[in-house]
Amino acid sequence: MTATTPAQTQQMDVSKHGLPVTIITGFLGSGKTTLLNHILTNQEGLKTAVLVNEFGEVGIDNDLLITTSEDDTMVELSNGCICCTINNDLMEAVYKVLERSDKIDYLVVETTGLADPLPVALTFLGTELRDLTRLDSIVTVVDSENYSLDLFNSQAAYNQIAYGDIILLNKVDLVDPADADLLEVKLRDIKQDARIIRTTQAQVPLPLILSVGLFESDKYFNESQESHGHDHNHEHEHRHDHHNHENCDHDHGHCEHEHEHDHSSHLEADGFTSISFEREQPLAIRKFQYFLDNQLPASVFRAKGILWFDESPKRHVFHLSGKRFSLEDEEWGDRAHKTQLVLIGQNLDQDKLKAQIENCFCMETAERGKGFSD
Ligand SMILES: Nc1nc2c(ncn2[C@@H]2O[C@H](COP(=O)(O)OP(=O)(O)OP(=O)(O)O)[C@@H](O)[C@H]2O)c(=O)[nH]1
């Protein structure tokens, strides 16, 4: 940047203090959006900007986030592939936040459940953002019921723990305290000095996780240089400043263009793919139920959706994490009726799953919205 614009003057004001940043990471369905909603509803006067990166083509988190006061919250979404694009997309999104005419007090970044937090942290540490922001901490949300590194077999899942300054052992309502104790021991094996806090619905007193100054950038940088070969060249290697997304194959949430860095820690190597649907068409409830009960393979680890059932007048928010699913209903209000669904899993038979879900859609009938009873 050569010339100084009014926006940059504003940006420099922020830079004096460095905008505090918390990164929320954690595996698929662990409770990151739940935590974000908790932060947004309890932030008490702080102007918090939120950046969300999603895996899958259909962005659903946007609809799942509570925005309490329009003026106080800024939510930016990006669903580029995380391994190569986050750096650039994220940087641009952070600059947008910094350039806002009204001052933002805090920035929270939610990574996708499949992201290795390292490149996200390095975006703040290894670029010019280093002078404009202050990485406060990395908060890792863990699903106590579903957590299993063996099951995930994912380097990203491991790194989420390894780089977590604070680990929220979430969903403790679903496990015995003794199992939570065992899990805590396993987590300490990976990250000895993490601050581990047990939560239900990510309800944690905010002073325990925000503005805690737990992030030690020197230690982090040294560790990352040694164990990942991501050294000072990282910024250079990951910059795709004029990256053209039209050339990307986002089918699997992943860019196909060439770049040099090591992919072994990223999602493609972990075999995760996603399937997304967005339709202005309803689902037939019984067909969808049949799909859930009889067809959905265990390899689908996570699903979420806003579902429109032909038989129901309500808008249904659907979540599946591991084997557990929930369906909550709410009013459509003035929102257009549509069905959005994302399934994420390892080594999915995409064609088969797509056909099975396809089969659940129906035409709107005269029975529309009459309820589920016969
Ligand atoms: N029983 C129980 N359910 C929870 C708890 N925290 C979150 N959930 C539910 O778990 C599901 C996933 O929560 P999210 O907050 O969307 O998880 P996430 O980490 O943002 O998910 P991704 O962005 O897809 O990775 C939702 O149905 C939540 O309501 C908890 O402490 N206990």
TrEMBL record:
Gene3D superfamilies, per the entry: CobW-like, C-terminal domain, P-loop containing nucleotide triphosphate hydrolases
Region (Disordered): 223-266
Keyword Cell membrane: no
UniProt-listed InterPro entries: CobW-likC_sf, CobW-like_C, CobW/HypB/UreG_nucleotide-bd, P-loop_NTPase, Zinc-reg_GTPase_activator
Keyword flag Transmembrane: no
GO molecular function: hydrolase activity; nucleotide binding
Catalytic activity: GTP + H2O = GDP + phosphate + H(+)
Name under which the protein is recorded: GTP-binding protein
Assigned keywords, A-Z: Chaperone, Hydrolase, Nucleotide-binding
Lineage: superkingdom: Bacteria
